[in-house]
């Protein structure tokens, strides 16, 4: 015999394992519940005649339970497959739940509506690209952080940048020349004659610079700049260049470069600054900037 | 435990003659002293005591050695002899595992390979770099702030808001508008977390993990970058993979730096971490007296740096051939956790 009322009293007042109480209300976790709320009329256990809609693999089924089968739990729930079409599904529900209490019919139709909406939305979302969150175990994160710290200390960044810049300054002449006779080059450096080489080259290009570099000059307008040309020429005249080969190669190479005027301009500024201080022309060498990646020199500038 | 052992040795010693007994005891005692490692003692207090003592001892010995070495050097210099050459300390970089993909200089195959890769057109100055910056879909304010600083660093760069476009669509859009690379800044927990650099039109996709980001305003005594084209420094990219990544990074900047601007952008690779710095520099000549006491004044050139712009570190997570395609893309290199097992093995 089915005593719905008794069942309900027992469940509600003592304990129902499907009930989940939250601040907003009492919910029923029973998979066969139509509304999802823990109610006398929505509890599938305490209603001998009940209907609900469940979803399996994207297909909706209407489940019905009647009192005639209450003694056979195995065959309790009768299942009817609902068509994809929403209206047709509604008609089928009407057909099967004819003469059933209005409450159940209404609630099953509501549930069907909600589930179709959800199905549509899930399909739409599956088409869009979602970002997948990959987690990294905490141990790895910490290990990476530790290693990064040590690497940063090992890479004495400021020093290495400064060294690289100075190297470029020194090697500025080298540029495209790979098989450079290193010894002679060093000798030259030691003897401080590079400055002479510099001034020498600047001489022939003075004229060009005057005319073309005018636009550049306007960026940093200094009356000194105009005066500076004469000083350089004076110094250059005094000293002799000792390495003709280098100079020639330099000159040829330099003439080809469009950046020359820019370089010269910068040199002028810097040499001038020094001039004011010490009356000594420093080794301001043109930058050729072979872009070094590791131990490899690239020919980036091509003219 | 130590006491127990000594007792045993004493028992042994009683069997032999006196002289030999003494010798034996000394030997065994010495041996024991060498053998007792702190880790063998089970008692925690005692163990930590002995460990601390050992540490202090080691320190003292080290100091003595250093003092002696310095004194010897000084003496040698005074006498005019050459001091003994200093030993090279062992570092992780020194003891790095040998990698067969380390590039040797002036390799013909390498230059041919470089000519045939995706960036050759930029390196030959046929195309000027044009960068498109964007963020991930859900982003916070730190992302665009970081991007605005990056726009100052890289000339010819544009920022577009992400919207809800698919990344593949953005790649197409960028291709149509003739961009040379696309950079996506990904934020996680309100901090920029990852950087995705996609070369265009069919360049590789490099995914970097970003960390230790410091924006310009948080750096003390920062400078302000100008609009001049910066110079580029790429340090320590030695292997083939490193070379490829280095070229990818180099293709972001124009090939004709404006030396007037004295701006330098550095990507320094150390143990697979790429450190990014952005400086303005100036060369100065500094007078130093030579150490030999010959009172010769030498003008030494130094470079002084002023930091401007952001500072961060990158670590390569994966390098994919072709533009962004996680499903059907071909990965050239992916970081796997079991690459971390050896502390001396690096890939860049």
From TrEMBL, chain A:
Native source species: Trapa incisa
GO biological process: maturation of 5.8S rRNA; maturation of LSU-rRNA
Keywords carried by this UniProt record: Nucleus
Pfam annotation, one family: Mak16
GO CC terms of this entry: nucleolus; preribosome, large subunit precursor
Family named by the database record: Belongs to the MAK16 family.
Keyword Nucleus among UniProt keywords: yes
Domain of life: Eukaryota
Repeat is among the record's keywords: no
Protein name: Protein MAK16 homolog
Predominant localisation class: nucleus
Protein localization: Nucleus
Domain Ribosomal eL28/Mak16 as annotated: residue spans: 6-118
TrEMBL record, chain B:
Listed GO biological process terms: maturation of 5.8S rRNA; maturation of LSU-rRNA
Domain Brix: 129-325
Region Disordered, residue ranges: 1-42
Pfam families: Brix
GO molecular function: rRNA primary transcript binding
GO CC list: nucleolus; preribosome, large subunit precursor
Composition skew (Basic and acidic residues), residue ranges: 27-42
Organism: Trapa incisa
InterPro entries given in the database record: Brix, IMP4/RPF1
Superkingdom, taxonomy of origin: Eukaryota
Protein name: Brix domain-containing protein
SMART domains: Brix
């Amino acid at each position: 015999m089915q005593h719905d009322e008794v069942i309900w009293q027992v469940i509600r007042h003592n304990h129902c394992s499907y009930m989940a109480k939250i601040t907003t209300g009492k919910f029923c976790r029973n998979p066969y519940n139509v509304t999802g709320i823990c109610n006398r009329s929505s509890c599938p256990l305490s209603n001998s005649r009940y209907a609900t809609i469940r979803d399996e693999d994207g297909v909706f089924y209407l489940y019905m339970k009647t009192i005639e089968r209450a003694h056979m739990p195995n065959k309790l729930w009768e299942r009817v497959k609902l068509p994809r079409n929403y209206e047709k599904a509604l008609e089928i529900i009407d057909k099967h739940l004819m003469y059933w209490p209005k409450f159940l019919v209404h609630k099953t139709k509501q549930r069907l509506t909600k589930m179709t909406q959800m199905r549509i939305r899930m399909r739409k979302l599956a088409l869009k690209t979602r970002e997948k969150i990959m987690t990294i175990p905490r141990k790895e994160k910490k290990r990476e952080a530790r290693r990064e710290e040590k690497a940063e200390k090992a890479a004495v960044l400021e020093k290495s940048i400064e060294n690289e810049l100075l190297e470029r300054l020194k090697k500025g002449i080298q540029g495209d020349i790979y098989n450079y006779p290193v010894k002679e080059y060093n000798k030259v450096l030691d003897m401080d004659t590079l400055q002479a080489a510099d001034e020498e080259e600047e001489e022939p290009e003075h004229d060009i610079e005057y005319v073309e570099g005018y636009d550049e000059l306007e960026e940093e307008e200094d009356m000194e700049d105009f005066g500076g040309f004469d000083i350089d020429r004076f110094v250059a005249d005094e000293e002799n260049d000792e390495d003709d080969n280098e100079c020639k190669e330099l000159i040829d190479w330099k003439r080809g470069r469009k950046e020359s005027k820019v370089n010269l301009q910068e040199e002028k500024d810097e040499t001038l600054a020094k001039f004011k201080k010490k009356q000594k022309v420093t080794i301001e060498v043109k930058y050729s900037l072979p872009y070094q990646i590791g131990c490899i020199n690239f020919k980036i500038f091509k003219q | 435990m130590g006491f127990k052992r000594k007792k045993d040795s004493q028992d042994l010693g009683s069997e032999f003659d006196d002289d030999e007994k003494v010798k034996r005891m000394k030997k065994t005692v010495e041996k024991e002293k060498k053998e007792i490692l702190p880790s063998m003692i089970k008692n925690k207090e005692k163990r930590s005591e002995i460990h601390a003592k050992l540490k202090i001892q080691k320190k003292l010995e080290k100091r003595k050695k250093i003092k002696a070495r310095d004194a010897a050097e000084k003496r040698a210099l005074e006498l005019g002899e050459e001091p003994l050459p200093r030993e090279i300390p062992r570092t992780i970089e020194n003891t790095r595992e040998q990698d067969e993909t380390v590039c040797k200089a002036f390799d013909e195959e390498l230059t041919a390979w470089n000519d045939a890769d995706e960036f050759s057109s930029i390196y030959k100055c046929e195309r000027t770099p044009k960068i498109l910056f964007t963020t991930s879909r859900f982003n916070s304010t730190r992302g665009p702030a970081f991007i605005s600083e990056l726009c100052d660093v890289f000339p010819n760069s544009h920022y577009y808001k992400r919207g809800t476009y698919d990344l593949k669509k953005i790649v197409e859009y960028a291709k149509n508008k003739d961009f040379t690379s696309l950079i996506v800044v990904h934020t996680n927990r309100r901090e920029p977390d990852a950087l995705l650099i996609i070369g265009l039109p069919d360049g590789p996709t490099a995914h970097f993990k970003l960390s230790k980001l410091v924006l310009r305003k948080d750096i003390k005594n920062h400078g302000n970058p100008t609009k001049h084209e910066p110079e580029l420094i790429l340090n320590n990219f030695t292997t083939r993979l490193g070379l490829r990544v280095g070229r990818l990074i180099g293709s972001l900047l124009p090939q004709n730096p404006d030396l007037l601007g004295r701006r330098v952008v550095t990507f320094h690779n150390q143990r697979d971490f790429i450190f990014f710095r952005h400086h303005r520099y100036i060369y100065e000549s500094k007078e130093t007296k030579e150490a030999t006491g010959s009172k010769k004044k030498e003008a030494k050139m130094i470079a002084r740096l002023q930091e401007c712009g952001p500072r961060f570190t990158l670590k390569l997570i994966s390098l994919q051939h072709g533009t962004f395609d996680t499903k059907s893309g071909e990965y050239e290199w992916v970081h796997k956790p079991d690459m971390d097992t050896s502390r001396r093995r690096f890939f860049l």
